[in-house]
Amino acid sequence: MKRERLALTRVRRRLRRIAAATARFAAGQYDQRLEVVATDEIGQVEAHLNQVAEQLVESMAREKMLVEQNTRLEEQARLSRDLHDSVKQQVFALAV
Predict the structure, then answer these.
(1) What's the pLDDT tens digit per position in 21-69?
(2) Please, are residues 82 and 54 in contact by the beta-carbon 8 Å criterion?
(3) What is the phi/psi pair of residue 27, to 5°?
(4) Closest CA to 21 of 44, 41, 46
(5) Cβ of 50: how many Cβ atoms within 10 Å?
(6) I need a surface site. Which of 22, 28, 37, 67 has the fewest CB within 10 A?
(7) Helical spans, DSSP H, in the chain
(8) Contact present, 15 and 42 (Cβ < 8 Å)
(9) Pairwise CA distance, residues 36 & 33, whole Å
C-alpha cells in the first residue's frame, strides 16, 4: 500500500510539472522544456511536449524571418514604383 501511494505521489508530481510548464508556455514563455525522467507514458508526453515546443519556436523564428523579408520586398516594390513614376513623368515632359 505504501509503495502504491509513493508511486501515485510521483505521478502526480510529474503531472503537476507538466501542467505548470504548459501553463507557462501558453502564457508566452516559449523556452519552457520538461525534464524527461522516465520512458513511461508520462515521459513520452514530456518528450512530445518538448518537441512541440521546439517546433513552435522554430516556426515562429521562420515566420519572423519571412515577415522581415516581406517588409524588405514591399519597400523595394515601393521604391521601384516611385522610380518608375518619376522616370515616366520626366519622359512625358521631354515628349511635350
Answers:
(1) 999 999 999 888 999 989 999 999 999 999 999 999 999 999 999 999 9
(2) no
(3) -85, 0
(4) 46
(5) 16
(6) 28
(7) 2-26, 41-95
(8) yes
(9) 9
pLDDT of residue 69: 97
Residue 35: left (phi > 0), alpha (psi -120 to 50), or beta?
Answer: beta
Roughly what angle, to the nearest 10 degrees, separates helices 2-26 and 41-95? 10
CA 34 to chain centre: 17
Q: What Rg value do the Cα atoms of the chain yield, rounded?
A: 28
The CA-atom distances, in angstroms, between 3 and each of 7, 10, 38, 49 are: 6, 11, 18, 29
Residue type at 82 in one-letter notation: D
